[in-house]
């Protein structure tokens, strides 16, 4: 006897009868459910169901039905007074599982090792953690000195190339929330640090115009870095890859080339994080 769900639901039936129909149609309900979650995750706050339906070209009845199921399971929160929907606790738990499994470090480690072999300078992979950067992977090139950017180290994001690359990819509102006043700007001696939000905005404007982030002696005197942000499917900075080198060995005239060498590795990691084929 067939399971009743297989008999009653053509989408489930397609998945359990060789997968031909599922492969051909990608199971519309499942795909639309994931599209709704992805859309909500990319928003700055809860949004009306009508906006979700319009943005995803879904019938309103379909959007409401799927939002109701997601709300029952805790993946979506309904704010009845505002008539809006946002990401729920169950979705947050999924993200926590993502963090526990350290997939970015696992995916990034072999890419970073290859980058160091080809470029010949030390490199690291970092993520934003509040106003800090957290270093997940470090690959040291042969005959290069040890750095302060060891795995597990946190540093103020606005002082590091990795942090600046990721901050430059954030919306203005998010950036302002991270740096609401001068007290948010940690300093490391007299290194030309950014001291306020206006200075940070100018620095990040320069970073976007240049196409990569750089720092020169802000963390360690005589040591400089260039970095490229790794963007996820929604365009948010999931991580950054940076190469660090002696300022005397690599002059500023070579930084553009070095950033160009890093860019394909950042793009490769972005594809892996987003689940796209190589």
TrEMBL record:
Residues 90-275 form the IclR-ED domain. It comes from the Bacteria. Gene3D superfamilies: 3.30.450.40, Winged helix-like DNA-binding domain superfamily/Winged helix DNA-binding domain (1.10.10.10). Residues 27-89 form the HTH iclR-type domain. GO terms for molecular function: DNA binding. Keywords: DNA-binding, Transcription, Transcription regulation. Pfam families: HTH_IclR, IclR_C. InterPro entries: ArsR-like_HTH (IPR011991), GAF-like_dom_sf (IPR029016), HTH_MetabolicPath_Reg (IPR050707), Tscrpt_reg_IclR_C (IPR014757), Tscrpt_reg_IclR_N (IPR005471), WH-like_DNA-bd_sf (IPR036388), WH_DNA-bd_sf (IPR036390). This is DNA-binding IclR family transcriptional regulator.
């Amino acid at each position: 006897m067939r399971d009743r769900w297989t008999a009653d639901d053509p989408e489930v039936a397609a998945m359990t009868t060789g997968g031909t129909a599922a492969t051909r149609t990608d199971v519309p309900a499942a795909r639309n459910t994931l599209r709704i979650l992805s859309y909500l995750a990319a928003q700055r706050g809860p949004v009306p169901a009508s906006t979700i339906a319009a943005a995803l070209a879904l019938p309103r009845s379909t959007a409401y039905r799927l939002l109701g199921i997601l709300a029952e399971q805790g993946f979506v929160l309904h704010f009845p007074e505002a008539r809006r929907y946002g990401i729920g606790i169950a979705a947050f738990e999924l993200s926590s599982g993502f963090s526990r499994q350290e997939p970015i470090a696992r995916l990034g480690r072999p890419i970073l090792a290859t980058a160091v072999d080809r470029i010949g300078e030390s490199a690291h992979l970092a993520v934003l953690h509040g106003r800090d950067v957290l270093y997940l992977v470090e690959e040291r090139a042969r005959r290069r000195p040890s750095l302060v950017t060891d795995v597990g180290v946190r540093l103020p994001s606005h002082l590091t190339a990795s942090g600046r690359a990721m901050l430059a990819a954030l919306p203005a509102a998010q950036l302002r929330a991270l740096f609401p006043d001068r007290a948010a700007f940690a300093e490391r001696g007299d290194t030309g640090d950014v001291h306020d939000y206006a200075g940070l905005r100018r620095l990040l404007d320069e970073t976007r115009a240049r196409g990569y982030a750089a720092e020169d002696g802000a963390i360690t005197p005589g040591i400089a870095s260039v970095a490229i942000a790794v963007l996820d499917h929604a365009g948010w900075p999931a991580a950054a890859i940076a190469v660090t080198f002696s300022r005397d060995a690599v002059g500023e005239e070579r930084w553009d080339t070095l950033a160009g060498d890093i860019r394909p590795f950042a793009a490769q990691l972005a594809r892996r994080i987003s689940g796209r084929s190589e």
